[in-house]
């Protein structure tokens, strides 16, 4: 009897949440024209697509990643798409000095900052954990500490512009799974810090919003290569994920989920733990 009651409650709650979503404020691309945006991890994948969307909407953009020659090509395409301004700065997010330098560069060359999009990730093998603690420390610096550093560095400027911080996270920051333990640890840390930071900013009546974007499996080249032979499930397009990220940030939503199943997966995680674990073990293939 308890199980059907849960299902009924779950279905009713889902209907209410969908209704609230449809009744919320609407997004217009014109609202982003001329806005000043810093996008990290923008040489490829989701970050690159985020840059292209902002460019098409007429924003002013600074992009960063490690590979300068790739950044040059992305900047050229951003200008072709209609960006009012597009600049790049190559940087290594494992280096604290580079993290500060990127924010300073963006603030100086854009004469302020409206959106800080934190998207970069460090490469990490997709396999059973091999107890490489040095790699975990390095990945925590790139995927977590540098996010905090950039947010704190940019906060004073964002407070002057009623700005926003957009944090690109993952369903693996809300749901434990095998084969990606170091990566998952960094994403759980991101969600915990920025979720709590949202409360602190609200309590001090700050005008800066934080949007945490929870993504499922996206069809970036890096993601597809990592999961090959480990996971058998559909991937969703990076350009659509990027658009939803931008939309959520513009609407100043506290959380956003893409694709559709990510939100329901987080509910399923806590409500049906036994079934959750069975599904995870079915989706992931064991590879010694």
Describe what this molecule looks like in 3D.
This protein has 288 residues and is of the alpha/beta class. It has one domain (30-278): NAD(P)-binding Rossmann-like Domain (Rossmann fold). The protein contains ten helices and seven strands. The chain has a seven-stranded parallel β-sheet, with helices on both faces. The protein starts with a helix and ends in a 5-residue tail after the last helix. InterPro entries: 11-beta-HSD, NAD(P)-bd_dom_sf, SDR_fam.
Query: Which strands sit side by side, in order, in the main sheet?
Result: 3-2-1-4-5-6-7
Q: Specify the CATH architecture.
A: 3-Layer(aba) Sandwich
Mean pLDDT: 90
How many domains make up the coordinates? 1
| Largest sheet: number of strands, sense, barrel closure | 7 strands, parallel
Q: Structural class of the helices, strands and pairings?
A: alpha/beta
Shape: globular
- Cα Rg: 19 Å
CATH homologous superfamily (4th level) name: NAD(P)-binding Rossmann-like Domain
The total beta strand count reads 7
Family: Belongs to the short-chain dehydrogenases/reductases (SDR) family.
Keywords: Oxidoreductase, Signal
InterPro entries: 11-beta-HSD, NAD(P)-bd_dom_sf, SDR_fam
Pfam families: adh_short (PF00106)
């Amino acid at each position: 009897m308890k199980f059907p009651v849960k299902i009924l409650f779950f279905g009713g709650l889902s209907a209410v949440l969908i209704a609230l979503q449809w009744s919320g404020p609407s997004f217009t691309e014109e609202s982003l024209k001329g806005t000043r945006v810093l996008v990290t991890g923008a040489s490829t994948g989701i970050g690159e697509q985020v840059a292209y969307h902002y460019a098409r909407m007429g924003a002013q953009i600074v992009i960063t990643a490690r590979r300068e020659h790739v950044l040059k090509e992305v900047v050229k395409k951003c200008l072709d798409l209609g960006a009012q301004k597009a600049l790049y700065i190559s940087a290594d997010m494992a280096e604290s000095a580079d993290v500060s330098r990127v924010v300073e560069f963006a603030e100086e060359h854009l004469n302020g900052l409206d959106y800080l999009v934190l998207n970069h990730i460090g490469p990490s093998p997709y396999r059973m954990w091999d107890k490489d603690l040095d790699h975990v420390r390095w990945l925590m610096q790139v995927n977590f500490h540098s996010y905090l550093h950039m947010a704190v560095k940019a906060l004073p400027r964002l407070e002057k512009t009623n700005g926003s911080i957009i944090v690109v996270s993952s369903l693996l920051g809300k749901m434990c799974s095998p084969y990606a333990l170091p990566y998952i640890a960094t994403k759980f840390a991101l969600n915990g810090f920025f979720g709590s930071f949202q409360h602190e900013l609200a309590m001090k009546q700050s005008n800066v919003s934080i949007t945490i974007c929870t993504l499922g499996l996206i069809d970036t080249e890096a993601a597809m290569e990592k999961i090959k032979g480990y996971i058998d499930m559909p991937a969703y397009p990076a350009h659509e994920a990027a658009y939803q990220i931008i939309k959520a940030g513009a609407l100043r939503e506290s959380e956003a989920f893409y694709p559709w199943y990510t939100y329901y997966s987080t509910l399923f995680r806590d409500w049906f733990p036994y079934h959750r674990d069975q599904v995870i073990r079915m989706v992931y293939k064991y590879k010694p």
